[in-house]
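Re: the request from the purification team.
They wanted to know what the chain is likely to look like in 3D before they choose a buffer screen. I agreed to run a prediction and write the result into the notebook, where they can find it.
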Amino acid sequence: MTFDPTCWSCLANAGIKRVSPGVTIYEGQHWLVEHAYPTKLRGWLVLVLKEHKAALHELTPAEFAEMGELIQRTTRLIHRQFHSAKEYVMILAEAEHFHHVHVHIVPRAADLPPELRGPRIFALLGEKVSADALPPAEVAALCEELRDAFPRDDNS
């Protein structure tokens, strides 16, 4: 399996340096479901590829198939848990230390201010929000709750 020691996703996957303060919400064959951190938004989930790949064209058919299934299951989970009006799904893999393919799945509340909608939602994630981020203990408890509620198949 490919590993990049400069990649924070690889370090987290290997158990060396976790990104999220909570447990892994779901582990599939090729992907993990984690809670993003630091963030100001409860339920900002990330599908993280287990193997280090920097571009979508590098994924195998099996990795693509599982990604599609997990996008469906994860969006249903966050809609059910957070009553989202919409769910954003974004794949960029361009941030410093995060060139590893990962998929952001974000609950968009009906009352989210217009200035935070669409790609501007990223104002609620990352080092720029560290001081105002959700407390680590709250995220850890939420991860356990989401792990227990995660749909085990695409019919859940």
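For the purification team: The radius of gyration is 15 Å.
Please add any questions underneath this entry.
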